[in-house]
Recover the amino acids of this structure.
């Protein structure tokens, strides 16, 4: 199961990705988490990302793609993964397609979360994250409670903080950027036949159920997903061969067509021109002419 979750800020991608990861046993891969982890570990990519962030520059797409490549190579991602927050634009989507084709890990599905703009503003203003483990909650729609009330890192209740860009003053700009840069990905993946769209409004459990239904035909982690895909590829290859054979002219048809073209050109060309352009006949070789003269004598 290899999927991408798309949606505007506040559409619930992070919450649903976390739930899906727990239920399916595959990792949720967030580019934000990858950046923070790489910086904390001090890897080569992490040092480059840290330098970019400290200078106020956006982290380069190639750098993020390198981090994703490293993350997909880890053992827990072999059975599948959930990409949350990447790709964000068409350039990143094309780069991701190239990477997954190189790794032989094409996407199974892309799910678009649809939420009304006014609901997005309400959700984002209520969003909080744990300062220790990074898990995202919403004080309005999904507050911490039950088994999720305790931080797995500290064993104490979550220390909830609000991100600096989660206030209402910046929400409108973030939604504008999403509409301009990320929303075109809907058509990008729809043309590939792997897009699913769900209504992400309402209770969290209801959205989880809709997400599960939209992914019902996706092979679960650990299943032999390669065989159906191989069969589909074989059928497509066979169809291409059949089409090529049908498009190929029958045996001898090309010769007849070539002869007909020559005759047509000959009829359309004046006789005088044909005679002038025709190759002159050469006589017998010089040695043959000598033998002929000797015989006459």
């Amino acid at each position: 199961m290899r999927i991408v979750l798309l949606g505007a800020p506040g559409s619930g991608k992070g919450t649903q990705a976390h739930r899906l990861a727990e239920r399916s046993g595959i990792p949720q891969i967030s580019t934000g988490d990858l950046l923070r982890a790489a910086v904390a570990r001090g890897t080569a990519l992490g040092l480059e990302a840290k330098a970019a962030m400290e200078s106020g520059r956006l982290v380069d797409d190639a750098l993020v793609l390198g981090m994703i490549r490293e993350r997909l190579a880890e053992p827990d991602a072999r059975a599948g993964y959930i990409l949350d927050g990447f790709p964000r634009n068409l350039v990143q989507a094309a780069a991701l397609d190239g990477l997954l084709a190189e790794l032989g890990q094409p996407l199974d599905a892309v799910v678009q979360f649809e939420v009304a703009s006014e609901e997005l503003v309400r959700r984002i203003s209520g969003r909080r994250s744990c300062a220790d483990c990074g898990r995202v909650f919403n004080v309005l729609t999904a507050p911490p409670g039950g088994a999720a009330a305790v931080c797995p890192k500290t064993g104490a209740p979550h220390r909830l903080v609000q991100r600096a860009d989660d206030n209402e003053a910046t929400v409108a700009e973030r939604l504008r950027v999403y509409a301009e840069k990320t929303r075109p990905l809907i058509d990008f993946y729809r043309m590939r036949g792997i897009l699913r769209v769900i209504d992400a409004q309402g209770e969290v459990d209801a959205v989880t159920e809709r997400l599960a239904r939209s992914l019902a035909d996706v092979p679960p982690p650990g299943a032999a997903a390669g065989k159906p895909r191989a069969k589909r590829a074989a059928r497509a290859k066979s169809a291409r061969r059949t089409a090529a054979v049908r498009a190929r002219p029958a045996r001898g048809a090309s010769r007849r067509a070539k002869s007909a073209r020559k005759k047509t050109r000959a009829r359309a060309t004046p006789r005088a021109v044909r005679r002038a352009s025709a190759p002159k006949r050469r006589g017998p070789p010089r040695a043959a002419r000598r033998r002929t003269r000797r015989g006459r004598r």
The first strand starts at residue 2 and ends at 7. Confidence is low (pLDDT under 50) at residues 224-228. The CA atoms of residues 128 and 162 lie 5 Å apart. Strands lie at 2-7, 28-30, 81-84, 109-114, 127-130, 136-138, 160-161, 195-199.
